[in-house]
Amino acid sequence: MPPPSWIVFGVLCAVLAAALLVGAYANASFAPDRQHTHHGQREVPSAVVSGGPIVSSTGGATRSYRLPPRTVALTFDDGPDPVWTREVLRVLAAHQVPATFFVVGSQVARHPELVRELAAAGHELGVHTFTHPDLAVLPDWRRRMEYAQTQLAIAGAAGIRTSLIRFPYSSYANAISDLDWPVFTQAGDLGYLSVLNDTDSRDWALPGVDQILTNVTPPGYSGAITLWHDAGGDRAQTVAALDRFIPLMTERGYRFVTVTDGLNLALAEAGIDHRVDAGQAASAGERWRGRMLTWGVQGADRTLGWLGVIFLAVGALTVGRTVLLLVLAGRHARRRRAAGWSWGPPVTEPVSVIVPAYNEKEGIAAAVRSLAGGDHPGGIEVIVVDDGSTDGTAEIVEALRLPNVRVVRTPNGGKPSALNTGLALARHELIVMVDGDTVFERDSVRRLVQPFADPQVGAVAGNVKVGNRDSLIAKWQHIEYVIGFNLDRRLYETLRCMSTVPGAIGAFRRQALQYAGGMTDDTLAEDTDITMALGRAGWKVVYEETARAWTEAPATLGQLWKQRYRWSYGTMQAMWKHRRSLLDRGASGRFTRRCLLFLSLFGVLLPLLAPVIDLLALYGLFFLDRTATVVAWLVMLALQMLTAVVAFRFDREKLSVLWVLPLQQFVYRQLMYLVMIQSVTTALTGGRLGWQKLRRTGLTPTPTRSHSG
C-alpha cells in the first residue's frame, strides 16, 4: 500500500479511537460512583449543617438560605430524557407551574432540543455535572472540567449560562461531610450556588405513587426544595405523583417557584437588597464550543451505535457460517465415507502434470520426485515449465534424469503463461496443475483424478496440507488450511459454488480448460479466475479430500503478509472480472450469484468487519461489563473451537495442535484483518499489485499420512 493510504488509515484509526474515548467518557465510564461513607463534619460550618438547602460559599463567606413558607420549588435531576422529561413537561404545562432542571451535560449534548424546550417554557436550568461522578473523590481540575463542559453543553443548546449547581449523590444540608465540603467551597469560588433539597421523593426506588407523595410533602407549611428525577429509568410513578402533588399543594396555599425565584423571595423577606439572576446569555464563542461538544458526543454515540450494529452483523455471519459448515460440510463428509460410495468406475486414463517453476531450487527436486513416483495406473507425465528461473531450477530437474519428466524453458512470462505452455505441450486429456514447492503423496494423483468418472466434473480441488508445522506461525496456518480452506470446500461443493481449485493441487479436463479460454493473467489469483470460469460454464467443481499435497507455508509474518495480500487482492479482482455474469441466465448466472454471494459475505465482508469484535471486546474490558465481555469472547472462541474439532476430525488430523487456537486470536487474526483492509484499500484506490515471490527453504521428503488424535 502506498504511504498516503497508510496515513489515511492511521488517521481513521485515530478518529475512531477518539470517538470511542469520547463515548466512554460521555457514558460515565471514567466517573467513579459514590462509595465513601460519612467523614465527620468538623470542617463544615454549623450554619450550613443546620441551615437551608441553598448554599453560597465565596471568598470565605458562607451563607445558606431556605425558601419562604408555603413556597415549593420542584427540582428534577439526571435529565434530559427524551421520554420522561417530556412527560414531566406535559404535567408542568397542564398545571402552569415552573421548575428547575439540574441537567447532566452528556445528556444535554445528546438531546439539545429538549433543553431548548425547557428554557423556552420558562423553566430554570442548573448544572448536575457532565458525567454524574462522585465529585468528592475527583481532583480539582476534573471537577472544573465537569462544570465547564456542562455549561458549554447548555450554552450550545439554549444559549445561556447558569449559576446553579447540584452535586451528584448530594441530599440534605445536614448530610454534608468534611470530604464533601471542599467541593462546595470550590464551586462557590467559581460563582455557583449549590442547591440541595428539603424533601426527597426517592422516586428512583419506585416506591409507589402514594409513598412518593409522602416523601416529598414538606411538614406543616414550611417552604421546600423538592427532589425528583426525570431520567435514569422508568419514571411513570414520578409523573403520576407529580400530577397529584401540584394540585394538592395548591389547595394548601402553596406557590410554585424556580429555585432562583424562591431564593429572591427569601432575600426580600430577609430585607437583603440583592437579586440573583436565573441565568445569563452565553457568548458566541461559548455557543459554538457548546455545539462542537454536542457534535462530538453525538458522533461518538453514532459510532458506538454503528459498531454495535456491525457487531451483531458479524455475529450473525459467524454463526450462520458455522451452522452451514457443520450441517452441509458434515453431510458432505458423511456421504463420502458411506459404505460403497464412489465416483464411478476407476479412472485409469493417463495424466499430464504441469509444474510452473520460477526460482524453485529449494523444493523443486522433492516436488518432481513425488509427482513422477505416483502410483496412478494409467501413467503420469510431468512437465516442468521453467519460467525464466535464474537459480538453476531447470538444471536441478534435469539432473534427476526421471524418464517421465520433461523440462521446458521459457522466458519469464508469469505463472498463467507457464501453465498455458504446459497445457499446450501436455499429451493427455486429464491435467493436474501443481506449484513448484508442493510435495505429493504417492497416491495423490490417482485419488485426485477419480472424480472424473463423473462426466459433469470439470475440475477437482485437492487437500492442501502445511508441511512445515514446527513454528507457531506455521501451526496457525495449518489450522487455517484445515478449517478455512478444506472445510469450506466441502460446503462449496455441496452448494455448487466452488470458487477456487488451489494452485498447489488441482486437476482439470483439458476440454473444460479450453472451453474457459485457458489460464489468464487478468488477476493475481489465476486459480480462482479459472475456477469461476468453469463454474459459469456449467462444469461441476468438486473436492477430493483423500488427494493430499504438502506445501511450504510462509515462515515469517512478512512473508505471510505478502502471500495473503496477493490472494485477497487477486480474489477481489476475480470477483470484479466475473461480476457481469450475475445477471446471466442458466448455469452461469446461478453459479455466479451463489459464488459471489458467499465470497462477498464470508471472504470479504466478514474479515473486513470482524475487527469490530476485537475492538468492542477491548472496549468492553475497560469501559463496559468485564464479565459479560469475557463471557461473550469465550463463547466466540468455543464456537471456533467446535468448528476446528469438527474440521480436524473430518480431515483425520491430530487435535493436539489446537492448543494454539486461542493464541491465534491475538496475532494471526489481526494480521488477516489488516491484509484484507489493505487489499480493499488497494482495490478502491485503483492500485495494481505485482506478484509476490516468497522465499522457500524446501520440504522434507513426502510426509506420511497422519491420523486423528
Structure description:
The chain is of the alpha/beta class. It is 49% helix and 14% strand. The protein contains 24 helices and 20 strands. The strands form four sheets. It has an eight-stranded mixed sheet with strand order 15-14-13-16-19-18-20-17, with helices on both faces. Helix 8 links the parallel strand 9 (199-200) and strand 10 (224-229). Helix 11 crosses helix 16.
Summary tags:
24 helices; transferase; disordered C terminus; NODB_dom; 709 residues; alpha/beta
Number of strands: 20
The share of residues in helices is 40-55%
Spans of at least 5 consecutive residues whose pLDDT stays below 50 are 701-709
Number of continuous helical runs: 24
How much β-strand is present in the residues?
5-15%
On the 0 to 100 scale, the average pLDDT is 90
Distance between the termini: 42 Å
Helix/strand structural class: alpha/beta
The main β sheet shows up as:
8 strands, mixed
Evaluate the radius of gyration: 37 Å
Outline the secondary-structure elements.
Layout: H1 3-26, H2 46-49, E1 54-58, E2 61-65, E3 71-77, H3 84-95, E4 100-103, H4 105-110, H5 112-120, E5 124-127, H6 140-158, E6 160-161, E7 164-165, H7 181-189, E8 193-195, E9 199-200, H8 209-216, E10 224-229, H9 236-251, E11 255-257, H10 259-269, E12 280-281, H11 284-337, E13 351-357, H12 364-372, E14 380-387, H13 393-400, E15 405-410, H14 415-425, E16 430-433, E17 439-440, H15 444-449, E18 457-466, H16 472-494, E19 506-509, H17 510-515, H18 526-536, E20 540-551, H19 557-577, H20 586-609, H21 611-623, H22 626-650, H23 661-664, H24 668-684
Parallel strand pairs: 3-4, 3-10, 3-11, 4-5, 7-8, 9-10, 13-14, 13-16, 14-15, 18-20
Antiparallel strand pairs: 1-2, 1-8, 6-12, 16-19, 17-20, 18-19
Family: Belongs to the glycosyltransferase 2 family.
Transmembrane segments: 304-328, 595-624, 630-650
Protein name: Bi-functional transferase/deacetylase
